[in-house]
Amino acid sequence: MHDIVQGLVQAFALLAGGDPELYGVILLTLKVSGLATVISVLLGLPVGLWLALREFPGKRLLISLVNFSMGLPPVVVGLFVSLLLWRYGPLGMLGLMYTPWAIVIA
User: Fold this and answer.
1) Rounded to an integer, what is the distance from CA 51 to the centroid of its chain?
2) pLDDT at position 52, please?
């Protein structure tokens, strides 16, 4: 318990001290998560509305696939994205591995 308290004290000291590296990490995190959220909403809302309001053959199968994909563990999705972005993967020529864009895609 002492280690947790000591870690929290150090964290608040870094925040209060104005550490530029820490603020850079915080800003990057906010940018990546914000961009990923905006892209998800811009893509997911129209697709979700289309899926809910239209009748077409295979609709039940597509809904099942969407529900299945939402239940996948993050580790499995991360592995799939990393295999796509790896140097010899299908999207490897883009050079996005280990970049903020790779996190947004994931």
Assistant:
1) 23
2) 92
